[in-house]
Amino acid sequence: MTSLSRRSVLGATLSAAAIASATPRSLALPHPKPRYLNERVGVGAIGLRYQGSVIAHKAQMYGDIVAVCDVDRHVRDQAKAAFGSTPASFEDYQQLLARKDVDVVLIGTPDHWHTKMVIDACRAGKDVYCEKPLTLTIDEGKQLVKAVRETGRVVQVGSWQRSDERFRLAVEMVRAGRLGNLKQVDVVLGKNGVGGPFMPRQIPSHLNWNLWQGQAPDVPYVEERCHYTFRWWYEYSGGQMTDWGAHHVDIAQWAIGSNPVEIDGKGRFANQLDSYNVPIDFSVDYLFENGVRMTVRDEGENGILFTGDRGRIFVNRGKITGAPVERLADQPLPREDWNVYSTDNLDRPLRAGKLDAIINHMGNFFDCVESRQRPISDVEGQHRSVSSCHLANISIRLGRKLRWDPAAERFDDDKEANGHLQREQRKGFEIV
Predict the structure, then answer these.
(1) Which H helix or E strand runs over 135?
(2) Which end of the chain is more exposed for a tag (fewer CB within 10 A), N or C?
(3) Per the omega criterion (within 30 degrees of 0), is the bond before 133 cis?
(4) What tens digit of pLDDT does each residue of 179-234 get?
(5) Cβ contacts of 344 within 8 Å, gap of 6 or more
(6) What's the CA gap between 216 and 425, in Å, rounded?
(7) Which stretch of DSSP H or E encloses residue 56?
(8) Contact assessment for residue 346 and residue 366, using Cβ atoms and an 8 Å cutoff
(9) What is the tens place of the pLDDT at every residue in 336-348?
């Protein structure tokens, strides 16, 4: 993949219809060819704690970090020092989006900021790589899909397991019929964090707590609400269902090739004030339109088990196993026959594991920035998979089975459940 020129990014356009129908395979070169600094794509990075810094460093293979943004001054200053180009530094992401030297935006913020930042970046004429999970609610996903279609921007979601050779092979084997007819998928995500009650503290002088909260309710500062542990609060995330689910449920649904119509979630809550408020334990059963059933559990070996009428395979971040996998030695599935997605990483070396797979995932994004094709973790597919995670959380919180219409993206005759498709947004931070 050659480094991209600012001219090629700003000059490329494609209608929303063309984005939806683009199919030609990416023509990436295996070794990036450097260009002069002033020809390289300008990258702005928003949210730069661990994962945000990881994706920013991977993006440096293709562009230059010209601006960084974080509401925590300590994180912001560390990020500024980490990139040799001495990028501009901001507390408010809108100032970053206003810069003409920013062509591409990376978003590594907590989940409740993703949708607004992506929409604002697209409307500012930027292409976007956004961390998973894509949204906080299902209605946010519908708004986001609409905005991406209208603006014609390229948006890659950081569900990098789609660029990991083991997960991709598992999906290709299912789709190629190597397990026969797929009947059942069993997903294990792991336990949610448990903790609290927590005591409010004085807001650190280096943190803009008001900006960090964004659309979420304005509450006293609690250290455990912020940074990594935000994921155990429904106000900002969805626990393991959206954290690991944005990886494993996404891969499962990619293989199933359908959407759920029935969701039956169960969970047990601590119900303590000022405590983590996602379930202590949870289980979910799904029925998909095509008849496949899926379970999601919080106990067992982390990973995904696919079962068909001719065999089963298990895949996680360390292995892919099962008799159909063993048979590949005599009955290979040639890489040129992989066809689940067309604008993908087939011209790149196979990679597995988080840090290596992100190399391919980020490379695929920059390929598509240049070609204007859909990336492998496109907005529409990711909206549908994270919607399945949100559906599970709604069912768990309501404590009953739900019927879902995937075409209308609403529950069948269920006013109470439909009330959970969106959340009230704090004044000044609404997604419009």
Answers:
(1) none
(2) C
(3) yes
(4) 999 999 999 999 999 999 999 999 999 999 999 999 999 999 999 999 999 999 99
(5) 25, 26, 163, 338, 364, 376
(6) 6
(7) helix 50-59
(8) no
(9) 889 888 767 778 8
Q: Where are the alpha helices (DSSP H) in 269-353?
A: 323-326
Cα torsion through 267, 136, 386, 107, rounded to 10? -130
Q: What is residue 30's DSSP assignment?
A: S
CA distance 317 to 164: 9
Cβ neighbours around 194 below 10 Å, total: 13
- The full DSSP string for 340-373 is S-SSSSTTS----SHHHHHHHHHHHHHHHHHH-P
* pTM (predicted TM-score): 0.91
CA distances 104 to 44, 64, 150, Å, are 6, 10, 18
**Cα(157)–Cα(160) distance, integer angstroms:** 8
Specify whether the backbone of 58 is left (phi greater than 0), alpha (psi in -120 to 50) or beta: alpha
Q: Which domains does the chain have, with CATH numbers?
A: 6-160+345-378 (3.40.50.720), 165-338+383-407 (3.30.360.10)
Q: What's the rounded Cα separation, in Å, for the pair 141 and 147?
A: 10
> Hey, what are 102's tokens?
């920013």
- Measured CA to CA in angstroms, residue 85 lies from 105, 116, 219 at distances of 16, 28, 38
Q: How far is CA 273 from the centre of its chain?
A: 30
Q: What is the DSSP letter of 207?
A: B
